[in-house]
Structure formats: structure tokens, C-alpha cells
Design a protein that fits this description.
heterodimer; A: 379 residues; Porin; 16-stranded antiparallel beta barrel; two-stranded antiparallel ribbon; 2 helices; 18 strands; 60% strand; B: 69 residues; mainly alpha
Chain lengths: 379, 69
């Protein structure tokens, strides 16, 4: 299966490479030049026992022929205590995760309808986790661009290992190696309602097969700590709807988003979210965001944590427990369109944003904060 | 889930019934309405949520690593 996924990924990339080679060959024949943007962003996440610093850089090129190339590189510096993940031993550690994402895209026009095709390749590497994913994306604008439909096919192939977080190397941990595979399909529709409003709906199905537990967590089973053991398949269904309305007289837009989730581990979840954008002058806006999340428990979760040797599945994963959370946050975004002249005029069209969000959570992870700042410079 | 599917079908039924002309789309193109410029920041936020919640999807995010599965 892992080999097949790699072949599918390779085939998809080769197919797109052929399409885009043609695009680039004709690029010079079109009068326009190559445009694009560069991006730099820093992400910071903090909770009781985990801190993540994740700087990222990216670039996007738009060719006159309609081809697009995008690449993003992100590094996660994760400092955590194993206890935060439910392990019985509290061993602090710091890990780096390297994440590279590359997208090749192509814009076309078919029967006067704009069409977009893209293939994304993503590779994520940690000392104890490798992830390879490929997704194919297609979108079309129909009905005189009043309706947009899109699909995404995703394939995932992961390898899970163990590293030695402050402990002596043992043959057991050195030999630990598991695999996780996944495939999914997502469909989306967006429809304009009025000159001030649109509505959208998404459906996503994803199936996972392989090692779905944590490589380090242990569960007390009749007094003995045993490795966490989850079902080896998981089928996930997600339905989401969104509505966006603008109130020009108030220089304000309201976005409402509702997500419903269900999987065959019996986890049910609902996530309503509201975002309010208010313009502050001609070149900036403020975004306020509220997100509520509530989920039920997986069928094998035991609130008392007392598992029996006969239990087929055991878990210490906080994500398998029922909990709820409230997220409150704000973001200020500044568009540098006022830089018409002077030494900084190259930054005209750039945008800078800074945001902070606080999560009140009843889960074992506790409360958390997300802080982000980013700069995008078009050229 | 069935209710959600019905709502989705209801949304789909709008297709073809509404026409907004190109010259009427000034507000829809405003950065407060077209939030595609938020994709980069949304990707990290989705990753945080995926690694701390049992549910996933609906935001165009993907799993892999960090206990997101």
C-alpha cells in the first residue's frame, strides 16, 4: 500500500510536470511577465506543557500562461513534556519538525468557465515521524462565475518511530516502526447569494489505516502500563457550511461557519464559529473570532482510565475524551497600499498581520494561546 | 449527519437560481469577504486544532505528524 501511494504520488507529479512544461514553454510568448509573492510568517503556540515555535517562508509564482508554482517551508520547534500527551512518565523533550509543501497549479478556461487544477506534494520529517502526502485539487467557476465547485483527493503515507527522550536506548524502542496510510476525498460548493453575501458547503471523507495510536503513551491496564492501542482503521466524515455577509454601511463583514463531524470511533463533534471583520480606515481591518468546539468520547474511552486486560483497545489520548473549548481572538491586518512613493514603494501591495487567540479548553491539554505574525510581499 | 446532508442539498439547490453580475461584485472582492489571503495562517491554526481535537477537516487542512490522527 505504501509503495502504491508513492507510485500514485510520482505519477501525479509527472503528469502535472508534463502539463506545466508546456505552460512554461509558452510563457514567454505572452506579453505579461511573471508575478507572485513571497511570504514570511512566525507561528507560536503555547499551552501548559507544550510550546511550539514555527517560522515559515514561502513563495508563489504566477506565469502568464496560467501556470502557478508555490512552495512553503515550515519548521516546528516543539518543546513538550510527555505527560502532556498522556504518558505515564514526564520526560521533557524538544523536537524539530521540517515541513515542505510544493504546489503546481494551472488555470484554464473551458467553455468560458475558469478552471483551476493543482497538485500538492507535502513532506514532513521529525526524528520519530515521517509523513508523505499528495493531494490533487480541481475547481471550476460556473453559472457566470456565480457558482464555484471543487474537489480534492488526498493520499497519505506515514512512518511512526520512537526516539529516546531522556531514556536509555533499548532494543524495544530501537526496533519500533509502524505505518499509517490514508486517503480522502473532499467536495466543496460556493454560491453567490447577493452582491453582499455568499454561502458555501463542504463534505469530506477520510479513511486511515494502520497505527493510529501514540508511540509513547502508556495506559494502566490492571495496574500494568501497556502501550496505547487504538483501532487500526478510522473513517471520518465532515460536513461544513459557511455564510459570509457584508454590511457596507458599517464597513463590516460577518462570517459564520458550522462544522459537524462524525467517525466510526463514535466521536461526534460540532464546531460553530463566527468572524467579524471591521475596516479601520482604508488600509487595515480588525478581525474578531470566536470558535466553540464540543466533542463526545470514542467508544473505547474510559473516564476512570481503568482498563482490563480483555479490553481490545486502550487509550490515554485526551482527544478521545469528551470536552469542549472556547476560542477568542483578534487580528490586525495592515495593507501597505499607501506606499506609492519613496524608498518603500516596492512594498506597495504588501500586507502585514499580527494576531492573538486564547483557547479555554476543558481537555487534559488545558488552555492554550496562538500568536501569529506574517508579512506578504507581492511582486 | 442526515440533517447536515439536507442542509448541504438545500445549499446546492441555490446553484443556478441566483445571478450576481460582475459589476456588482465589488464588496465580494473586498479582503474582508474574500479571505483566501488567510490560507497560510489558517493552515497553522488548523494544525493546532487537529492535534488537540478528535475532529478534523472542514477547513482544508491535512493530518500527519504531531498526533493529529
Amino acid at each position: 500500500m505504501r509503495l502504491q501511494l508513492r507510485r500514485i504520488a510520482l505519477f501525479a507529479l509527472l503528469a502535472f510536470a508534463l502539463v506545466f512544461a508546456t505552460s512554461f514553454a509558452f510563457a514567454d510568448e505572452v506579453s505579461g511577465g511573471v508575478t507572485g509573492a513571497v511570504m514570511a510568517r512566525n507561528n507560536y503556540y503555547l499551552e501548559r506543557s507544550t510550546r511550539v515555535v514555527a517560522p515559515e517562508v514561502g513563495a508563489r509564482l504566477d506565469f502568464p500562461s496560467g501556470a502557478t508554482v508555490e512552495a512553503v517551508y515550515l519548521v516546528d520547534a516543539i518543546t513538550s513534556a510527555s505527560l502532556a500527551a498522556g504518558a505515564l512518565e514526564d520526560v521533557a523533550f524538544t523536537e524539530l519538525r521540517h515541513d515542505v509543501r510544493a504546489t503546481l497549479g494551472r488555470r484554464l478556461t473551458i467553455d468560458e468557465n475558469p478552471v483551476q487544477l493543482a497538485a500538492t506534494f507535502r513532506r514532513s520529517h521529525e526524528p520519530d515521524y515521517d509523513s508523505l502526502s499528495v493531494s490533487l485539487f480541481g475547481a471550476a467557476e460556473l453559472n457566470r462565475r456565480n457558482t464555484a465547485v471543487s474537489f480534492r483527493l488526498s493520499f497519505l503515507s506515514d512512518e511512526v518511530r520512537q526516539t529516546f527522550r531522556g531514556r536509555e536506548r533499548t532494543p524495544t524502542t530501537m526496533g519500533f516502526r509502524e505505518e499509517l496510510r490514508g486517503a480522502g476525498v473532499a467536495l466543496a460548493l460556493t454560491q453567490l447569494l447577493t452582491p453582499r453575501a455568499y454561502v458555501g458547503a463542504d463534505y469530506e471523507f477520510y479513511v486511515l489505516e494502520g497505527f493510529t495510536a501514540n508511540a509513547y503513551r502508556r495506559v494502566l491496564t490492571a495496574g500494568t502500563p501497556l502501550p496505547e492501542h487504538h483501532p487500526e482503521t478510522r473513517k471520518r466524515h465532515t460536513v461544513a457550511t459557511r455564510l459570509a455577509v457584508m454590511f457596507p454601511e458599517l464597513a463590516t463583514s460577518l462570517h459564520l461557519h458550522v462544522r459537524l463531524y462524525r467517525d466510526d470511533w463514535d466521536i461526534l463533534a460540532a464546531t460553530p464559529e463566527a468572524r467579524l471583520y471591521t475596516k479601520l480606515g482604508s488600509f487595515s481591518h480588525l478581525r474578531l473570532r470566536y470558535r466553540y468546539y464540543k466533542q463526545g468520547a470514542a467508544f473505547f474511552y474510559r473516564a476512570d482510565g481503568e482498563y482490563l486486560p480483555t479490553d481490545p483497545f486502550v487509550t490515554a489520548d485526551p482527544k478521545m475524551a469528551p470536552f469542549q473549548s472556547h476560542l477568542l481572538g483578534g487580528q490586525l491586518k495592515l495593507f501597505l497600499d499607501f506606499l506609492d512613493e519613496g524608498r518603500f514603494k516596492r512594498l506597495r501591495g504588501a500586507s502585514f498581520d499580527v494576531g492573538f487567540e486564547y483557547i479555554f479548553s476543558t481537555s487534559a491539554y488545558g488552555n492554550g494561546t496562538i500568536t501569529q505574525a506574517g508579512l506578504v510581499i507581492p511582486f | 449527519m442526515w440533517r447536515a446532508a439536507l442542509i448541504t442539498a438545500w445549499v446546492v439547490s441555490f446553484a443556478g437560481c441566483v445571478r450576481v453580475a460582475p459589476y456588482q461584485r465589488g464588496h465580494l472582492a473586498d479582503p474582508t469577504m474574500d479571505v483566501s489571503h488567510e490560507n497560510a495562517e489558517a493552515s497553522f491554526r488548523a494544525h493546532v486544532h487537529d492535534s488537540r481535537e478528535g475532529a478534523t477537516g472542514g477547513y482544508g487542512s491535512s493530518g500527519g505528524g504531531c498526533g493529529c490522527n
